[in-house]
Design goal:
The chain has one domain: Nucleoside Triphosphate Pyrophosphohydrolase (Alpha-Beta Complex), CATH 3.90.79.10. The strands form three sheets. Strands 2, 3, 4, 5, 9, 10 and 11 form a seven-stranded mixed β-sheet that branches. A three-stranded antiparallel β-sheet has the order 1-13-12. It is built from eight helices and 13 strands. Helix 6 packs across helix 7.
Length: about 290
């Protein structure tokens, strides 16, 4: 149990009360994918992080991994543009039906490109694109963002296949019911492809960085960066590994039980006290059954 993450509005106290009483409407979470890009740095394992601009409706100002919502068109990517484990093989690791599993993997690759410029796809099933730094890639990236271009159309036009084998599932987080914008998010890990470099893409992010997982956790504890609970938990887990290979090997043995944090109101014990939001993870004492 811990205090609610910094930055939650005070009016969420009333919403938390309504949820506990069964009177507040709880939005259905949208399916989404997040990718933790990894590389081996001179000082150990590093992760790629972006800081979201403060104007964003969700997680404004937070430091996060690349990711975003599923595009319904992702569920229909033809097999000819897919390399690696078939969507049927992703159903168990992702706890998802075939179409949703396909859409989640596609969203992971697409959102990684949209938010970092890194493309986990190649002209053949065992290659990746050399780089994505020329301006034609930037045109495509912006077209994906505004949804005027479908991911399948990009792969077809550039004669590429998605490299599902470069991804590993890592975690499954669901946004707390107290939030009005909710996501049902699968977290993936992937190595930065050799030869590719993330670009400062702007848009939703105003800062990008490579950090060792433990350094990112320490920066959050100092208040230098803001991390949402799933990001903090993932970075804490990754701080136990010293290389990309070690993370990818560990990912193959993980079981993805959905993690749904819950928020309750702790009412004041004295008339002059203020109510507090308390944040619980599954397994915490006091987690609502």
């Amino acid at each position: 149990m811990s205090n609610a993450p910094a930055g939650w509005p005070v009016d969420l106290v009333e919403r938390a009360r309504g949820i506990s009483a069964g009177t507040a409407e709880i939005p259905t979470p949208r399916d989404a994918a997040t990718v933790v890009l990894l590389r081996d740095g001179v000082d150990g394992l590093q992760v790629y992080l972006i800081r979201r601009v403060t104007s964003m409706a969700f997680a404004a100002g937070a430091t996060v991994f690349p990711g975003g919502s599923v595009d319904l068109r992702d569920a229909h990517l033809p097999d000819q543009y897919w390399s690696g484990p078939h969507p049927k093989e992703w159903t168990e690791p992702l706890d998802a039906a075939v179409d949703l599993a396909r859409a989640l993997v596609c969203a992971a690759v697409r959102e990684t490109f949209e938010e970092s410029g890194v493309m986990l796809a190649g002209p053949t099933p065992d290659s990746v694109v050399a780089d994505t730094l020329d301006e034609t890639w930037e045109v495509d990236r912006l077209a994906l963002i505004d949804r005027s271009l479908a991911f399948a159309e990009l792969l077809e036009r550039r004669s590429l296949v998605l490299r599902a084998d470069l991804l590993r599932s890592w975690a499954h987080w669901i946004t707390p019911e107290i939030e009005t914008r909710r996501f049902d998010t699968r977290f993936f890990v992937a190595a930065l492809p050799s030869g590719q470099r993330p670009r400062d893409v702007g848009g939703e992010a105003d800062q990008v960085m490579w950090l060792r997982p433990g350094d990112a956790v320490a920066a959050a504890q100092r208040g230098d960066i803001a991390l949402m609970p799933p990001t903090m938990a993932t970075l804490t887990e990754l701080s136990a590994y010293d290389s990309v290979d070690a993370v990818l090997q560990a990912a193959t043995a993980r079981e993805l039980a959905p993690i749904l944090p819950k928020v309750l109101v702790e009412e004041p014990q004295t008339p002059d006290g203020a109510p507090q939001l308390r944040f619980f993870l599954p397994g915490d004492d006091g987690y609502p059954g």
